[in-house]
Each structure stands twice: as structure tokens, then as C-alpha cells.
Amino acid sequence: MLSIWGPETKLCDRISRREVLKIGALGLGGLTLPQLLQAEAAAGSGKRHKAVIMIYMCGAPSHQDMYDLKMEAPSEIRGEFRPIDTRVPGFQICEHLPRLGNIAEKIIPLRSVHGSPNGAHDSFICYTGRTTRNQPAGGWPSIGSVVSKLKGPADPAVPPFVGLAPDTGHPPYGSPGLPGFLGVSHSAFRPSGPSRKNMVLNGIDEARLNDRKQLLASFDQFKREADSSGSMQGMDDMNQQVFNILTSNRLVNALDLSQEDPAVRERYGKGDPKNYGDGAPRNLEHFLMARRLVEAGARIVTLNFGRWDFHSNNFGGLKETHLPQFDQGLATLIEDLHERGMADDVAVVAWGEFGRTPKINKDGGRDHWPAVGGGLLAGGGFKTGQVIGATDRLGAQVADRPIHFGEVFATLYRHLGIDYNTAPIKDLAGRPQYLVDNYEPLHEVL
């Protein structure tokens, strides 16, 4: 929390001062500000850097209703949606994803993703490439936390790992990816998450907050009081630089969509900022915010979208609430990255934790199906305009080119310039841990 002109406080080190500044979570989900500066040697402000935007489709979308329609299957399996042709010969997509179809040359549908162990709802495998089984003490860290640890910030004023995930009724649906054994210093910064209230300057009205000179004066007085108390003695250079972060506009500007071209905002749309059931919102502005964040310097941005767990009314739910908005947000993001010359530097992946049953149940829904699911890749300088993998006639089993979550993670780490074959991170017991388990990148996209 950041407080201005608070009450008199006795600290545990017996230093008495006004509680003019508290540097703690600051809306970073436990991320301490000094940690943002730990890799100062990384690429500096204004330099191009590699990044990943990961869209977690909470609850697992049905692959056979999006990228892998089975028109030759019986009616109780194929459902009511129809495929449409795209600009890539032989590549069809669901009729409710026309915008993605129009940029088929810029995307890579993955039709044979596997690796989910039991069909339980959890974002864990999407963020780590691993299952929750046999974890080291502290748990496996998400890709955002790994990159935070190994790369640090590309810009000292912007967190390397940002999660656009508000709280949800089912907690894994609201997770941006956990830090695991890397610790809370490598947690995601969550501007729309449960720590949002900690980003408020308590005790200062809007007029004073907008008066940058007054705000800087508050910091100056804090420093004088802290100096006189001796609390600044011995503070290392990195901690002193925290104040530069707190008074920088770079992160705030990235989060301020009012600074974006109105025509661009209209292209992305708004969607629905309210949570869908116990899942995440269908907030299309998060797609735009993700682009602005990587543009400002973030390396990993995770984005939680919707609730795809349609055990009933699968086709109504997809057609009326999810597919059109997902289509608009993702297609616009991909086009925007290309138009801005960022497509080679920013990789995009969208997926859920497993697939859905081939057979439609009595309630018109599809149930959990861990045997195979789907996903989509874009950007990253990858060879796009192709489909990788295939399922059988019923969409029930992998028929060609199985793709494990770990292979996608190896691909993303390679894109980020991280050697996934070495063991640069250590668990809580001091043992080195590999980033992926015996998987290589998708050779088709390189």
C-alpha cells in the first residue's frame, strides 16, 4: 500500500515517523519493488525486447467447435456449428470466428494439444507446462515468474510479469500464474486483481494526486524524515531506485487506455468487464492493455478470459457470449501487433486446460476431456498460416502430431532467448530444475 500523510507510527525497529509511505505489495500481488530492478543489466528502456501474451481460456473451450470441426461425425458429436473457409487453402475455422479466419495467414491453430492429467479445472498446466504431480517444495513457477527471475525488467519502471486477472469464484480461473518456489518477489503485477486497492494513494484527494509537484513534494518530505530518523542508512542503491519507479509515468501510462487512439479502442471493443459466472470477464480492453504493457516493457502478460466450461447449452453459450468477443479481441490484437511491427517480438498463445467430450450430453453441453484439446499460436516470428496436429474422425484422440504443453513452453522460452536445456533456476532445497521436461520446441514453427 502507498499512503500519504498517515498517522504517527512506531516501527518495529523503534523508528518513529509519519506513515507517509508504505512500500509493500503496491498492487503487485506480493511483488516487492526492489525486485523489479534486480536485472538492471537486461535491455533498457526503449530497446526492443521479446515478450509473450498468454490468453488463458478459463474452464477449457471445446476444440471441435472452434478449430477442429468434425462435419463427418454423427450429429450427436459434430454439433450445430459449421466451418468456413479462410484465406489459407485447406484451412477452415468455425463460422463464429470470422475475424480469425480473415487473418488465417497470421495464426497457427494447434489441434492436438495433450498433457492434462485428469480433467480437473486448473490454470496450472497452461502457465507452467506441467501437471501438479510430483512438484518440488514450493511448487513449479509459472512462465511469468521464470522470466521475471531470469530476465528481470526490460524497463526498470515496468514489471516484467503482469497478470490481467481479477479474483474469480473458482480461484484457479483468477490466477495469473503462480511464482512457486521462486517466491513472491517474482509474482505477477495485477492491476485488475485483488491488490488493486493497494494502488490507491490513501489520504490524498484526486486534485493533489494529479498535481505531480505536490506528489513529489510528499516524497521529498518522506525522504527528509526518513533520513533524520536514520532509516535510510544502509539502504542499497536498488532500494533507493524504488522511488524512481514510484514516480515514473511509464507503467501508469500503459494502463491508461484513455491515451490510446479512439479508433484503435473501437477496433478492440469493450466486451464485458464483469466476471462470467465463477470465471473471468470477457474484457476486450484487456487485449489492448496487454499490447500496451508489452510495448511499455513488460515481458510476460497473462490474460484470463471468460468461462468456457459449458456442460449445458454449449452452442448457445459459445455463440452468444464467448466466440464473437474472443474473435474480436484476439484477431484485433494479432493485427495490431503486425501493424506496429511487433509481431516478431511478441508471441501470442491462447488455450485452456483440456478439451471437451466428443459426444454432446443430454443438456446440450460438452464435458471434460483430458485426452486432447486445442490452442492457437501467433506472432513470435513463427511460421504462421498453418495448422499443426490432427484428431480422429470424432475429435476424441490424437491422430497425428501430438503436441504436449511442454513443447509449446519450450517454443516460448526459445523465443524469449532462454536456454530451456540448462537448469538456471534452483528450488527451495537448492536443487537445479529444468524449465521443461524433455520437450523440444515445435519444429514446424521455427
Automatic annotation (TrEMBL):
It comes from the Bacteria. PROSITE patterns: TAT (PS51318). This is DUF1501 domain-containing protein. The lineage of its organism: Bacteria, Pseudomonadati, Planctomycetota, Planctomycetia, Planctomycetales.
